[in-house]
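Project standup — Tuesday

K.O.: blocked on the structure for the chain from last sprint. Re-posting the sequence here as requested.
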Amino acid sequence: MKEELRNEQRRHEDFMQQGHAILDRTDPDSSDAGLVSQRLEDVNGAWDRLAAQLGEREASLTDVLEVSTQFQDSVKTLVEWLPLAADTVDGLSSLPPAEQRKQLEVLGTLHVAVCS
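H.V.: unblocked you, prediction finished:
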């Protein structure tokens, strides 16, 4: 969409130049001059709003992409951590309760370190 707007920029500029050329040849006090001037302002305002909306959407998409990338990185890290956690939990059943708590604390510490 940004490219489409850029492609239409020259057309917009030509339209505005033609409108101003008409105004230059029109009696400034006539109703026609007021009408042409108002139309030029309307078109230029619409163009500016469209360009601003496009900029806002581009910024929004950039933000969403960044959040999505961070989420994907977190999921990848978690997926890499899960087999270690599963192996550790599976091995806990043969340990005494005090050792089980100690292993779970270590596992929790690893999770925090891996996900940070």
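K.O.: great, moving the ticket to review. Residues 31-92 form the longest helix (62 residues). The chain has a mean pLDDT of 88.
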